[in-house]
């Protein structure tokens, strides 16, 4: 399927939500059957900075995986960037994931034995980007997160904060529509966490759409909007 | 802020080019060098065993065919033998004078002739007539006798003149054929001037000069006279040997029949020299050692393949987080499977490459020790690494399938 064949739900002229979820559910068949996410309606507009909070096991990560096309919902419809992804083939979803989504994980997931710039460039490996452009853009993005001096370093020699900044560069370099982060500061001390959150704030100011899963109030306070998951059900938090 | 619904970028490059795939696979393979070495070991041993077995087989049969040419494959020699008689006395026999004619009657004989050493009673051989006794040089040239058929039986090539015939033999003519070295020593290079040589005081006309023989090389050093002449002049009796040239492939048969034809009453008392049955040397090499080595090589390859499969599977399990990450940045299941297949193909190819080199070295080394000329089909050096790559391909299929099935959400879960 080519991009043109994709079902376009909105007109190009109106402002299209980055995320539009309706009645999304995810049930793990078990046994025992677990309804990790139930009947979630969630719309994220372009440029929004959203935090998703909730207790452990409430379904935050599951929702984030659904948002990032890493997992398929068992109910509901999901329109990403104006494209209905519920019915797409696994191949198309992989491609879309690579092009539209940037992930930041608590555990960084940097590849050992590959230097920092190679780790960042990996983000564009499965896209139509030439090798040269991949590395040029990766260096530029590492500059943006303040790691321009460590491009050739082995990730094992980086501090936790530096690793997470490298991971953020990797998430950003392919210019995603949506940056998803699952407990991005979970493995960091407060000053490194602060640095990561500063970067997120800067990205938000530049117009990037972010959704950050956290159970840390300091993290969720930085976001412009906060939703809470309780036993798989989503509710908007007023502030 | 407005966003386009579908963003398009200028994207000239391919989605994961072959070069990128190879790069990723190589990086994956070389990440743990010691493991890589261990993983290739089975393939190295297997390919090395196969290459050296085939190489040594080719080398050995090369040596055999070099020595075992057509001439020696059709040569049968019958000589008088002896054995201990029942009363303790040694039984001996003599070859009959017509031994060559008897053998010639056998189907499968191409040519046959008798050979005898002639006792000239201490006479020396001279090339110059007695007219100038002071200048003549006496040579110690052996004198032998042959029936006319002997020349044909040993594939004699004539440098000049001709060989004597049955007529010379029957009449006991005083003619000789000189071997090429004897002719050189006597200073005779042509026979159109009808040169003579002297054995003692007797003169013999030189009718021809031998250039080469395929057997009984002593003829080239000798003055050769007809059997009949030797018998009449020097009393030479029984021949020393019958030389037989058989038709191709008839050597074994003639070897069995010749003694009976030559000496019907006492065939057991003759000693017969027959070439080994065709191919038996080659088979000796191929059947015993080759079978064992090929089997061992095959076994090593099987173990090598299983080794690659096991280690690649292990590496899939170890690298689930990497697989999850690759899926998160847009890799399809096919991309992930492709990477692991290529990784195990690289391992197999490397094993094949090193194994081929080791096999060639072994072939050259053994050849050097055995004083053989190493013969190796160069295509083997190309086929062997490809065989290794094939093994890697087969071995990598299951691990790659497992890698493709890894769910990204499971792979990325924080440990
Ligand atoms: N693959 C799975 N199979 C079965 N159950 C699962 C699976 N993944 C998640 N769950 C269950 O779904 C529920 C939600 O899990 P999830 O990981 O989304 O929680 P979370 O909010 O991210 O928790 P935490 O803050 O501890 O990370 C949990 O009860 C969990 O056990
Ligand atoms: Mg979680």
From TrEMBL, chain A:
Superkingdom: Bacteria
SUPFAM superfamilies: P-loop containing nucleoside triphosphate hydrolases (SSF52540)
ABC transporter domain location: 19-239
Keywords tagged on the record: ATP-binding, Nucleotide-binding, Transport
Entry annotated with the keyword Transcription regulation: no
GO CC, alphabetical: membrane protein complex; plasma membrane
PROSITE patterns the record matches: ABC_TRANSPORTER_1, ABC_TRANSPORTER_2
InterPro entries: AAA+_ATPase, ABC_transporter-like_ATP-bd, ABC_transporter-like_CS, ABC_transpr_LolD-like, MacB-like_ATP-bd, P-loop_NTPase
Gene Ontology molecular function: ATP binding; ATP hydrolysis activity; transmembrane transporter activity
Protein name: ABC transporter ATP-binding protein
Species of origin: Phytoactinopolyspora halophila
TrEMBL record, chain B:
Domain named ABC3 transporter permease C-terminal: residues: 296-408
UniProt subcellular location: Cell membrane
TM region(s), chain numbering: 36-57, 291-317, 340-366, 378-401
InterPro entries noted in UniProt: ABC3_permease_C, MacB_PCD, Macrolide_Exporter_MacB
Record-given protein name: ABC transporter permease
Family of this protein: Belongs to the ABC-4 integral membrane protein family.
Pfam families linked to this entry: FtsX, MacB_PCD
Keywords: Cell membrane, Membrane, Transmembrane, Transmembrane helix
Organism listed in the record: Phytoactinopolyspora halophila
Main localization category: membrane
Keyword Cell membrane among UniProt keywords: yes
GO molecular function terms listed in the Swiss-Prot or TrEMBL record: transmembrane transporter activity
GO cellular component, one term: plasma membrane
Membrane topology value: Multi-pass membrane protein
Chain ranges of the MacB-like periplasmic core domain: 37-245
Domain of life according to the entry: Bacteria
């Amino acid at each position: 399927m080519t991009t043109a064949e994709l079902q376009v739900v909105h007109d190009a002229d109106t402002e299209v939500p980055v995320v539009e979820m309706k009645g999304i559910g995810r049930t793990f068949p078990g046994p025992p059957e677990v309804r990790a996410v139930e009947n979630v309606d969630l719309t994220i507009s372009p440029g929004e900075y959203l935090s998703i909070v909730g207790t452990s096991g409430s379904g935050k990560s599951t929702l984030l995986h659904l948002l990032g096309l890493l997992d398929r919902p068992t109910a509901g419809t999901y329109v990403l960037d104006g494209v209905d992804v519920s019915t797409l083939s696994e191949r198309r979803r992989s491609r879309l994931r690579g092009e539209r989504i940037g992930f930041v994980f608590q555990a960084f997931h940097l590849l050992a034995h590959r230097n920092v710039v190679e780790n960042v460039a990996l983000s564009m490996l499965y896209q139509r980007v030439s090798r040269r452009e991949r590395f040029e853009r990766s260096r530029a993005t590492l500059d943006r997160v303040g790691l321009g001096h460590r491009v050739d370093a082995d990730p094992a020699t980086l501090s936790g904060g530096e690793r997470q900044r490298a991971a953020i560069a990797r998430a950003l370099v392919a210019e995603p529509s949506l940056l998803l982060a699952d407990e991005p500061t979970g493995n960091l001390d407060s000053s490194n966490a602060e640095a990561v959150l500063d970067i997120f704030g800067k990205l938000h100011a530049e117009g990037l759409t972010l959704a950050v899963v956290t159970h840390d109030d300091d993290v969720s306070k930085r976001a412009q909007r906060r939703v809470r998951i309780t036993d798989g059900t989503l509710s908007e938090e007023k502030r | 802020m407005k966003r386009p619904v579908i963003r398009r970028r200028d994207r000239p490059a391919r989605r994961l080019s072959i070069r990128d795939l190879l790069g990723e696979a190589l990086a994956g393979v070389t990440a743990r060098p010691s493991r890589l070495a261990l993983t290739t070991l089975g393939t190295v041993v297997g390919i090395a065993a196969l290459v050296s077995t085939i190489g040594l087989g080719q080398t050995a049969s090369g040596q055999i065919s070099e020595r075992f040419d057509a001439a020696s494959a059709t040569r049968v020699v019958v000589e008088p033998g002896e054995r201990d008689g029942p009363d303790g006395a040694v039984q001996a026999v003599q070859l009959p004078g017509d031994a060559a004619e008897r053998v010639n009657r056998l189907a499968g004989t191409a040519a046959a002739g008798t050979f005898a050493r002639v006792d000239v009673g201490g006479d020396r051989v001279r090339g110059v007539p007695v007219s100038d006794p002071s200048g003549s040089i006496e040579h110690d040239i052996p004198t032998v006798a042959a029936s006319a058929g002997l020349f044909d039986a040993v594939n004699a090539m004539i440098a000049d003149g001709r060989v004597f015939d049955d007529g010379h033999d029957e009449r006991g003519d005083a003619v000789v054929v000189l071997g090429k070295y004897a002719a050189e020593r006597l200073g005779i290079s042509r026979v159109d001037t009808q040169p003579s040589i002297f054995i003692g005081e007797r003169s013999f006309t030189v009718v021809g000069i031998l250039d080469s023989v395929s057997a009984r090389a002593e003829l080239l050093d000798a003055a050769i006279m007809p059997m009949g002449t030797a018998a009449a002049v020097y009393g030479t009796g029984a021949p020393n040997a019958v030389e037989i040239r058989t038709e191709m492939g008839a050597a074994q048969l003639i070897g069995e029949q010749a003694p009976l034809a030559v000496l019907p009453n006492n065939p057991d008392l003759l000693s017969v020299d027959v070439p080994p049955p065709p191919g038996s040397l080659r088979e000796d090499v191929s059947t015993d050692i080759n079978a064992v080595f090929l089997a061992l090589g095959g076994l090593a390859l099987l173990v090598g393949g299983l080794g690659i499969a096991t280690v690649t599977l292990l590496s899939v399990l170890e690298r689930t987080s990497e697989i999850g990450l690759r899926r998160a940045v847009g890799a399809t299941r096919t991309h992930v499977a492709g990477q692991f297949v290529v990784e195990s193909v690289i391992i197999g190819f490397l094993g094949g490459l090193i194994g081929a080199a080791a096999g060639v070295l072994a072939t050259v080394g053994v050849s050097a020790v055995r004083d053989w000329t190493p013969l190796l089909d160069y295509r083997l050096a190309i086929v062997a690494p490809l065989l290794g790559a094939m093994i890697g391909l087969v071995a990598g299929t299951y691990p790659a399938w497992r890698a493709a099935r890894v769910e990204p959400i499971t792979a990325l879960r924080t440990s």
